[in-house]
Amino acid sequence: MSRTVLPERAPAVLLLDAGNTVVFFDDDAAAQVLAGEGARVEPARLRAAHGAAKRAYEQLLASGVSHAAGWGLYGQELLRAAGLPEGRLVELVGALRAEHDRLNLWRRVPGEVPGALERLRAAGIRIGMVSNSEGMIARLVADVGLARFFEVIVDSGTEGVSKPDPEIFRRALARMGAPAETATYVGDVPSVDVDGARAAGLSAILIDAFDHYPDYTDAPRIRSLAELAEKWTALRT
Fold first, then answer.
1. For the CA atoms of 94, 99, 101, 102, what is the dihedral angle to 10 degrees?
2. By residue range, what is the domain housing residue 219?
3. Of 70, 25, 73, 33, nearest to 50 (Cα)?
4. Do 217 and 168 share a structural domain?
5. How far apart are CA 52 and CA 174, in angstroms?
6. Whole-number average pLDDT of the chain
7. Is residue 232 domain-shared with residue 115, that is, in the same domain?
8. What does the alpha-carbon distance between residue 147 and residue 138 come to, in Å, rounded to a whole number?
9. Cα distance between residue 112 and residue 109, in whole Å
10. Using the 8-state DSSP alphabet, how is residue 54 labeled?
11. Could you tell me if 89 and 95 are in contact, meaning their C-beta atoms sit under 8 angstroms apart?
12. How many folded domains does the chain comprise?
């Protein structure tokens, strides 16, 4: 993975996105839901389709579509890119959304994530979360056993404001009592996460676990939080 160089100094405050940063879409669970609707697709095909869905989501937000509306459109693009029948997309996304409302589909925690968060926190880095979600992220983070790592969790579904609006980043910083210049944001969508954080005065890093943005050089690009922890904990200890 080509990338720009990470900042040499670790920040005092690290704000993290949720989806595709800390928790990841459970393609296996989604495939099971779809199979229950008579639409069989391999989880690997869903995984390969997220890049197209993410780029469509970026364009939707840039055009003024809300995150709440964008969720369904993201789902449709995901299933379309995975090769599911056009005439069933709305119905199938409805089934996925029902499962998401029951237990957030962005619920898979890679094995290295808890250790990376522990190392970052042990190095004295304060950690918060800012997510475009549906008011369920705090519950999800607790359910997957990660709540202890986060001082604040700011969810667009309860705030009434979504990334890339800089206001949602400012609210997180205000609740932590942290100036923007002491903070870095890490998220997986350039125009939503990197641009939004920078507009609020934070530095930003793109996390690109699946190499969706191979040519991106506008901000440092990493594959995982473990990569970040490896460098920054060494610098601070």
1. 150
2. 13-23+109-236
3. 25
4. yes
5. 35
6. 93
7. yes
8. 7
9. 8
10. H
11. no
12. 2
Paired tokens of 131: 């997510």
What's the rounded Cα separation, in Å, for the pair 2 and 211? 9
Q: Give the whole-angstrom CA distance, residue 70 versus residue 36.
A: 24
Where are the alpha helices (H) located in 87-130, listed in sequence order?
89-102, 113-122
What would the two tokens of residue 233 be?
Answer: 């904990």
- Are 76 and 89 contacting, i.e. CB atoms less than 8 angstroms apart? yes
pLDDT at residue 236, as a whole number? 54
pLDDT at 2 (0 to 100): 44
Give me the pLDDT at residue 211, please: 93
Tens-place pLDDT, residues 11-32: 999 999 999 999 999 999 999 9
Residues 210 and 154 in one domain: yes
Residues of the chain under the 70 pLDDT cut: 1-4, 235-237
At 30 the pLDDT is 98
Q: What is the DSSP letter of 19?
A: B
Exposed / middle / buried, residue 194 (Cβ in 10 Å: 0-12, 13-18, 19+): buried
pLDDT tens for residues 124-139? 999 999 999 999 999 9
Strand order in the sheet with 13-16: 153-155, 126-131, 13-16, 183-187, 203-207, 221-222
Q: Which amino acid is at 222?
A: I
pLDDT of residue 148: 97
97 and 145 part of one domain: no
Cβ neighbours of residue 144 under 8 Å, at least 6 residues apart?
23, 107, 109
Same domain, 190 and 159: yes
Q: Residue 130 corresponds to which amino acid? A: V
Tokens found for residue 65: 């579509």
